[in-house]
Design goal:
Elements: E1 2-3, H1 6-15, H2 19-27, H3 29-39, H4 43-53, H5 67-94, E2 105-107, H6 109-112, E3 120-124, E4 127-136, H7 139-149, E5 159-167, E6 175-181, H8 185-195, E7 204-212, H9 220-233, E8 239-244, H10 253-257, E9 261-266, E10 271-272, E11 278-279, E12 288-289, E13 297-303, E14 313-314, E15 318-319, E16 324-325, H11 330-343, H12 368-381, E17 386-394, E18 402-410, E19 420-423, E20 436-439, H13 440-445, E21 449-456, H14 464-479
Length: about 475
């Protein structure tokens, strides 16, 4: 089962709030409630729409008493009448008016026992007369929910399957989910980095839209997610991901209850059409974007495939915008920065002279010795006990293994006094991560083995051509304004 560090998640949630919007809502609660009452729309829906629309205006305007009345309510008024009509129609077609706050769903095992019937049924606890079934939602019905009712007002045309909880004898679902192909490579790459696993993109499904009726039973999302997990497991999907927008008031609690865990934060922007209505960039109707830098979304993942239980999977929380993990130490952050700086100065004079390269070679090929010695000397100056290592790095895929390689080892690195191997050029034969910063136990889980032929302290490394290349590398870095003294 996937796990994560709750403390880090709670800290990050605060970074995902747009506090000026929170203050705007708090300062105008009476005005917002009055507007919601007059338009016969629930307050939470109005607040969500205000938080979507306000970012197109400068923050300095938020403190003016007339901001909502002058800038936001006129935009909302043009769409609320249609929304109200659509939502009333939806409630009639889904039967959602029968629920009251506190209702919970349960599997209806009696109906599942009907011979030859493979459908999945549910019921409301304590109300056996309210029963339903999990079914695939048609494209027309799905588009109606996504375009007319969902807060984003845009359907995902790359849908793979839409699933819903349907009450008996009703045409629309009380709870709806759209599952799509993963639409952005950065989500997939962050997942790989979070789990330290090379995951095929086709093994990941994205929960792209979720919607439910007003008093939706509180465990509806968990129930539908559990079914979706079984559905996709049969189709060889390994992971399910989704995004949660904390800025709009979503807490992520329903995702945690559905066994999703956070794995990344991802930068987003808001877009608006010619009528100043919020729209998704995917629709291509936008004319301008937010006047403010928006807080990121939090990406969540749930394991779909059957876990072997042999290796516990721990999700590091990855910052996609800055390409680092919140679980990494200060040293790891710095090493990622050093690697980026090295890429700007590596050339034939810094590369090991015996390296055979061609136009398809990775930029780090042949740069392991000089880069590892630079890093070893730097960390030794910081007070770490460091070894410069030579040998072979054996990866699960033979063509990614590196023979006659260099890396460093930091002795008694963490609180548990474990040695850490740092390979700043791990990708030179195509391994998907540029840098490895792992204990021996971590590497064993990844089926990676560093076979050491020699270990030396940095000051005892005296290979002439390596020292010459290091001196050249340091001069290039210094001329670029980078000094590691």
């Amino acid at each position: 089962m996937l796990s994560f560090e709750r403390v880090i998640f709670e800290d990050i949630k605060d970074e995902c709030h747009f506090h000026d919007l929170d203050f705007l809502i708090e300062a105008n609660k009476t005005q917002i409630k009055k507007f919601a009452f007059e338009n016969e729309i629930d307050v939470e829906t109005i607040i969500k729409q205000i938080k979507l629309l306000a970012p197109q205006f400068e923050k300095r305007l938020y403190t003016t008493r007339s901001f909502l009345k002058k800038n936001i309510f006129p935009i909302l008024s043009s769409t609320l009448a249609k929304y109200k009509k659509n939502f009333e129609e939806y409630l009639k077609l889904c039967g959602g008016e029968v629920f009251i706050k506190g209702d919970q769903l349960a599997w209806d095992k009696n109906r599942n026992r009907v011979e030859g019937n493979k459908k999945i049924f549910f019921m409301v606890k304590g109300k056996p007369e309210i029963k339903g079934e999990i079914k695939i939602v048609g494209e027309t019905e799905g588009d109606f929910i996504e375009e007319k009712l969902h807060y984003l007002r845009a359907s995902r045309k790359d849908s793979i399957v839409r699933l819903g909880l349907f009450l008996d004898n009703y045409d629309l679902p009380i709870c709806y989910m759209n599952f799509s192909a993963i639409d952005r490579d950065d989500k997939w790459k962050a997942l790989c980095k979070s789990l330290d696993e090379n995951i095929n993109k086709c093994e990941v499904i994205e929960l792209s839209r979720v919607f439910g009726c007003g008093n939706l039973p509180q465990n509806s999302i968990s129930l539908l997610t559990a079914y979706a997990t079984r559905y996709f497991r049969k189709r060889k999907i390994s992971y399910m991901i989704t995004a949660v927008n904390i800025t709009l008031g979503f807490s992520g609690n329903s995702m945690l209850a559905s066994r999703f865990v956070p794995y990344a934060i991802r930068p987003i922007n808001y877009y608006y059409d010619k009528n100043n209505q919020y729209c998704t960039k995917r629709k291509g109707e936008y004319t301008h974007s937010s006047n403010n830098k928006m807080p990121p979304n939090i990406l969540f993942v749930r394991e779909v495939g059957q876990s072997t239980g042999k290796v516990s999977k721990y999700c590091k929380l990855i910052d996609i915008g800055n390409n680092y993990s919140y679980n990494e130490t200060a040293m790891e952050h710095e090493i990622y920065a050093i690697r980026q700086e090295l890429e700007g100065v590596w050339n034939e004079k810094t590369r090991y002279h015996g390296t055979i390269i061609d136009r398809d070679s990775y930029i780090s090929k042949g740069q392991c010795g000089v880069s590892s010695l630079l890093l070893a000397r730097l960390l030794e100056k910081r007070g770490y006990e460091v070894k410069f290592c030579e040998g072979d790095a054996i990866f699960p895929k033979d063509d990614q293994s590196i023979i006659n390689h260099c890396w460093i080892k930091v002795i008694n690195y963490n609180k548990r006094k474990e040695d850490v191997i740092i390979d700043i050029t791990a990708d030179q034969n195509g391994y998907w991560q540029k840098i490895l910063f792992k204990t021996e136990a971590d590497l064993k889980k990844l089926k990676i083995h560093y076979s050491v032929k020699s270990e030396k302290t940095p000051e005892t490394v005296n290979v002439e051509h390596l020292i010459e290349r290091l001196a050249y590398l340091e001069r290039e870095l210094n001329e670029g304004g980078i000094n590691y003294e």
